[in-house]
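Tokens as discussed.
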């Protein structure tokens, strides 16, 4: 069922140009590379610990590293071959971190994985079995946050969820991976929604989609009509509507309190990519070893959506999309608003890689930052109601206590403030620094209590 009343979040937000160049491009599978690099930190929380060693022969889908503690995630091999070393390798952060490097040999899969294209509709697993399979499969939030999914499926004691929201917004300019997934895997998504509803013990689920994806809205609305408790909510186009708190406000009118979690207002949010991964884990026994990645840019010859094995170097995606444009000034993992520039094209695709964006040189340099003119534009666009013009100097001068009082930790790092600043001030850069430092202080306080 579709709710035809268009909604959005009321506070802040911007409307950057969309450039959804690859929206009409079907998902194409990229073959496995000759070598994969599998970072052990592909999720929020503790890094996974290897359960293989140099020289170990592995088959696709086999466990490589075990998640440590509750907030962590398992990691599986996306290829068959031999572990040649466990060593430090550069990841998307730009730093060297421990990774498992595998030379590919053939493509032999774990025999327990159901690789048939048939749709498995029967939900026989109990709530606990669903959560266990999701945890075993190493599923994390695939909208970019990479929070371990099994943690979000266990509602904390004293809390109660009454609604599931599936995030199909994909508000980042250029990215279309979720859009294509909704169009090509709609039936699997519906089963994934039902599985998550069962795990959360909720009876209502809403799939939020922005109005610029009218084909996905029409298709999923038709499927939802046959699914009790599932509906599609059309949303106005506004960035950053994909943020959990903004999406919850748009769909339900409920407002997550500062420092709070969605479950505090009875809601749990999962991305459509995560939902599809849940379907594959529970119904097909398939761990999270590949994902859809948008490879795009206005100068790129073939903007595309690829199904990519985790650990595949970015360079292989570039080749598949027609090669690096001559005018490229910056390569960004993710979208232009929240993505991060990389300086090494051998960096591997991870569970959180949603896109690879090529920006031309004339759009890749920063303008000279001028003094703040107190125009208040950054305040008016902040979806969290913060004062970015104030948070920046607090971080710049290391006034961490004041930054905490001004709610720097509520920032969702959407970049709306930097985007709209007429003085070209690096607001988000300093606010991220402030969040990192204040976060460390908060953790130290908790450890001493």
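Sequence:
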């Amino acid at each position: 069922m579709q709710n035809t009343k268009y909604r959005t979040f009321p506070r802040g937000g911007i409307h950057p140009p969309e450039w959804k160049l690859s929206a009409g491009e079907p998902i194409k599978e990229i073959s496995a590379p000759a070598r994969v690099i599998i970072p052990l930190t592909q999720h929020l929380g503790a890094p996974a610990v290897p359960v293989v060693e140099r020289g170990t022969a592995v088959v696709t889908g086999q466990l490589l590293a075990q998640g440590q503690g509750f907030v962590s995630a398992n990691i599986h091999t996306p290829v068959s071959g031999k572990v040649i070393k466990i060593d430090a390798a550069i990841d998307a952060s730009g730093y060297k971190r421990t990774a498992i490097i595998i030379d590919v040999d053939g493509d032999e899969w774990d025999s327990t994985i159901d690789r048939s294209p048939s749709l498995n509709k029967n939900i026989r697993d109990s709530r606990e079995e669903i959560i266990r399979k999701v945890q075993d499969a190493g599923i994390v939030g695939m909208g970019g946050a990479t929070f371990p999914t099994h943690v979000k499926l266990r509602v904390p004691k004293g809390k109660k969820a009454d609604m599931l929201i599936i995030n199909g917004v994909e508000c980042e300019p250029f990215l279309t991976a979720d859009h294509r997934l909704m169009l090509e895997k709609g039936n699997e998504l519906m089963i994934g929604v039902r599985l998550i509803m069962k795990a959360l013990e909720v009876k209502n689920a809403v799939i939020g989609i922005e109005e610029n994806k009218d084909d996905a809205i029409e298709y999923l609305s038709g499927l939802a009509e046959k699914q009790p408790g599932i509906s599609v909510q059309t949303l106005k186009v506004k960035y950053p509507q994909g943020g959990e708190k903004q999406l919850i406000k748009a769909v339900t009118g409920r407002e997550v309190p500062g420092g709070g979690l969605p479950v505090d207002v009875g809601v749990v949010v999962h991305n459509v990519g995560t939902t599809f991964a849940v379907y594959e884990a529970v119904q097909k026994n398939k761990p999270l070893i590949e994902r859809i990645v948008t490879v795009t840019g206005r100068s790129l010859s073939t903007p595309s959506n690829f199904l990519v094995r985790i650990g595949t170097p970015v360079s292989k995606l570039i080749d598949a999309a027609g090669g690096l444009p001559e005018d490229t000034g910056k390569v960004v993992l993710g979208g232009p608003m929240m993505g991060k520039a990389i300086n090494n094209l051998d960096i591997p695709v991870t569970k959180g890689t949603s896109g690879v964006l090529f920006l031309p040189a004339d759009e890749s340099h920063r303008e000279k930052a001028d003094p703040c003119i107190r125009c208040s534009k950054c305040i008016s666009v902040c979806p969290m109601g913060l004062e970015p013009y104030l948070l920046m100097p607090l971080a710049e001068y290391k006034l961490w206590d004041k930054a905490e009082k001004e709610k720097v930790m509520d920032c969702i790092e959407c970049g709306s403030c930097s985007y709209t600043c007429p003085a070209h001030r690096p607001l988000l850069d300093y606010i991220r620094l402030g969040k990192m430092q204040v976060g460390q202080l908060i953790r130290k306080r908790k450890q001493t209590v």
